[in-house]
Amino acid sequence: MRLQAALLAAACVSPVAAIFSDEVNHIDFHHALLGAPSPDSTFFLKPSSASNASLLYTLSDKSILGAVNPRDGALVWRHNISRSASPAGGAGLLRGLDGNNAVVGAAGDYISSWGAQDGKLIWDQQFDGNTVADIELLELEDATATSDTRDTLALISGKSFGSVRRFDGDSGAVKWEYIDESGDIPFQVSSSPSEVFYISLQSGILKSSKIKVTALDPITGRQTGQQVLNTEGDITGPESVLFVGANTASPLIIWTDKAHKSLKINVIGSKQISSLAIDNTSGEEIRQVTVHAPHKLNSLPHFLVHYKTGSGAWAEVYHVDLKSAAVNKAYQLPYLQGQSVIATSSIDANVYFTRVADSEVVVVSSASHGIIGRWNVDASSPDYAQAAVAEVVAKGKSVAVRAVVLRDSGDWQLIRNGQIEWTRPEALIEAVAAIWVEAEEKEDLAHELEVEGHDSIHGAYIHRVKRHVRDLQHLPDWLKELPQRIVSSVLSDEVTNLDSFGVAKPVVVATRNGRVYSLDTGRQGSVMWSVQASEQAWDVKDITARPGQVIIDLSDGSYVSINASTGETFTQPPLEATNVQSIANFVVSDGSSLVRLGAVGIREDGSPVTPFNDITGFLVTTSANGRVLGWIESDNKTPVWEFVPPSGQRVVKATARPAHDPVASIGKVLGNRSVLYKYLSTNLVLVTAVNEKDHVAGFYLLDGVSGKVLHSATQAGVDPTQPISSVMSENWFAYSFFGDAIGESSAKGYQLVISELYESSIANDRGPLDAAGNYSSLHGSGTDSLPLPHVVSQSFMIAEPISHMIVTQTRQGITTRQLVCTLPSSNSIVGIPRPVLDPRRPVDRDPTSAEAEEGLFRYAPFLDFDGKWYLTHARDVAGIKDVLSRPTLLESTSLVLAYGGDIFGTRATPSQAFDVLGKSFSKLQLVLTVVALTGGVIFLAPVARKKQVNLLWKAT
Amino acid sequence: MSALPPPPPPQWVVALNSPMPRPSKAANSIPDPPGFTSSNTRGGKQVSLHNPTEMHHDTDRHQRQQQDKQQATRPEETDTLKLKKAWEIAMAPSKQLPMQAIMMYMSGNTLQIFSIMMVLMLFKGPIQGLINTNAAFAKYETPTTKARLVGVKAVYVLMQLLLFALGVWKVNGMGLLPTTRSDWLAWESERQPLERAFFAFK
């Protein structure tokens, strides 16, 4: 108890703990994610004409535009361009040009140009309701091109028109516009050295289309020619055209017939269609045909066609004769089993094709079939390779290649000369559930201890002696390890050796598309394994950790059990087809550990799927129609109570105290050493109900057993479209919302309200129940029924919305808690110390000495987030949907994991790491000091003894 | 034959005739060999080593004279004298009280090494005094004074208790006495609900 008091004192002294710069990347990790990159919009590019190193640019399926450093896979900059785009936008487009210091991206109706080096916005344009169908950077060497920035050609597709516009590279001003009102489907734009081509699909008879090519003058935008290609029967829509060459010396349109029997090629500008028979020797049906061609004006007019069958792939390289517009097959890359992807890259006029297959990386020149670079690399993966981009560097006769393979799940992998350099786990951006792995218990030791516990004293003693004798067989091994352990513990930092205290637990993350990842939080969150647990997207309802395994419950009543260390999955189909809305976990807290009693699925209407007879207790659920329901174990048909919020309000959220929420002290000691007793109940429910019409939000504190309303607060002028978050812990709850000014005295802005519950308003009083050890919500009559709490509330104005709140959990609850808030508008997570949010802070006066002793200070209505509170410090943690916290074996430390967009994990120490030796503590120094002192004593002892003897005998 | 100079006296003669050198300071601390008792350490007079018989005679006479004097005084007088002395001892702690009170008041109620040491000393005195009550008055206890010494002893104990009370007051001031509700908070337990609710929110 005294220790606890000392810890409490330590906890109160310094409630603010910041992250030290040397702890960054050590106690925390961050996956800054982009999302699955779209293959057409991913490329290597030198960010400015002056730089030698290139960056990797991409636009992901989440419309996040970003630059990645190819050396280590670190994110250089990123922007979410979907924020300003209409939600109905299709796949985004991103274009860049070597020697151009900007990249241009488009998503939906929004087009924007960004500085390639620093990611600063150059210009942007929005076309309300119309979508950007295609963009291209003009590589024209005209007299007006004075600056480094090239002009952009954009094809905008409206409801009944297509429009080609040329935007100025520096300002985004429209230089000219060509409007096509013929009703054709605008398809793409392309340019040759002298002309701009606008390609549209003219609908013909029987759902088939013709390709219409309109040539435009690049300076004025006037139409100079038009051709309609006779493609009827082959082309049914934009998806049947394989390739429209952009920015090449000889822009091409390539498509195939429906049976993949012949390849049709048109050199844009001519009417001629060359038809080449596809020579399929594999004996399998061709599943996919892709065309790879360089995207530079001065490149050789060569291109490669890649044919994929179910089990393998081959490729053919073609040359285009510029004068006659004839297309000839040059050579063929052999058929290879397994996955194979091709990337095109060009150095000056030379074009190189890089083929990444399962076991090798091959680089060939487009001119001849000789292999100029080959590396053996094991790039095989169950995750299907979708596409690749590569950068080839010629070193004399040999070449070096960096190839990025984009996989089906969205993960990227960079292979440099046959070495896998890094992998970006982009699929994690869709994480829907995460949990820390529970280590497999040491069953045998627990069993032995149980035997000893049940035996007589004598028998237990003999048993223990026998066990210890048996343990001696491990002694040689232990002795062998001992020197190494001593050396490592002396030389390494104390902070690194905390893994045995449960601070470096692996995390299992499930993503929306059915993938499961295991992240090693001790090693910057690196991926330990990843599996595709479900072929298609799944609806994860709950994730729980059992010793050694992780169970993922799905909405159809089935569950997937995953081995936490190997990633082996086992899918249990549902016993009966039900649609589960959520999962009720019957978990009780037993000391510092949680005991699982069972689980039951909850239907959409809030009723349990089955009666839960083996559990004694009540169940509280929410129903889809905005009510809170209470259930008794034997009845899953009719609820025992129902909470319906007042007229017009709908329950939007209900929270309860976390399952692990230990209370170190049941009262709050005041300055005069009297005690305010906390109102503690594990059955409390905090319900948030919103009336969207009247902009009223009600917060109701219910007793989960009887459904009785213990406290309620109503806030008027609440904006229901802004996030309303709430959290409950110990004897307090907090909620945040955007409140409008409705009266003279009310404030407009984001508010954070905190309420503390006490048994009585009088100190040293335990309320009507007084010293009773138990209470009942149901059977009490008059005096000993559940009393109402005394509630103290205070509200603070904050600068930003809070989308999600949790409370840090520690093992014994002695450490002060932090309110961990997700701030979506500044992409950060802040941990507000609880003492700052004390509702008993004196208002409009300075604290008395007794209050100051309690740690209370004067109330200020505006709560400014201190820079030291930010758990994410300088990091930009975007898109967080959920934050988790769990205790470690160290009382001072709580693990925090944020997911939903980026993945961020850290260790929160709300009262500083009071039980951990800091980095400044050196064991080596301590050992050396002891050794030096011992040496000194051994050396000086005879000298001192001799001197003393001499002093006695020598008479002066 | 010329007369030879007389031979130098042997070493022991020189030593016998010359006085002993002054012993150094360090020599004083040399312990005597077992069984030897130095005449110097016994106190009393400085006696010459040359005639030990005279010394014996001298001390004997001295002691005899003293005994004669004691027998001369009356026992009643001695008893009053002893009681007076005993009263002095009994009242001695009360003289410390004001000084200690001022010291305790000045030292403040913070937990520091000096105030803690002072409080410890303050407790040590009365406790030792109480334990040694009988020993303190043993010198004055005779069969005749025994009955009258009880009151003196009671006053002595009271005085020591007063000092002790001062210490308790000080410790209370420092907040070390478990007198408030908060000191017993750790022994109070959380009220347990008879019913248990589980939640399924998401």
UniProtKB/TrEMBL annotation, chain A:
It is found in: Endoplasmic reticulum membrane. Residues 1-18 form the signal peptide. GO terms for cellular component: EMC complex. Keywords: Endoplasmic reticulum, Glycoprotein, Membrane, Signal, Transmembrane, Transmembrane helix. Residues 729-953 form the ER membrane protein complex subunit 1 C-terminal domain. Its main location: endoplasmic reticulum. GO terms for biological process: protein folding in endoplasmic reticulum. The chain crosses the membrane at residues 924-944. Residues 18-426 form the EMC1 first beta-propeller domain. It is a single-pass type I membrane protein. Component of the ER membrane protein complex (EMC). Belongs to the EMC1 family. This is ER membrane protein complex subunit 1. The lineage of its organism: Eukaryota, Fungi, Dikarya, Ascomycota, Pezizomycotina.
UniProtKB/TrEMBL annotation, chain B:
Residues 36-51 have a biased composition (Polar residues). Pfam families: EMC4. It is a multi-pass membrane protein. GO terms for cellular component: endoplasmic reticulum membrane. Its main location: endoplasmic reticulum. Keywords: Endoplasmic reticulum, Membrane, Transmembrane, Transmembrane helix. Residues 1-11 have a biased composition (Pro residues). Residues 53-67 have a biased composition (Basic and acidic residues). The chain crosses the membrane at residues 102-123, 149-169. InterPro entries: TMEM85/Emc4. It is found in: Endoplasmic reticulum membrane. It comes from the Eukaryota. Residues 1-80 are annotated as: Disordered. This is ER membrane protein complex subunit 4.
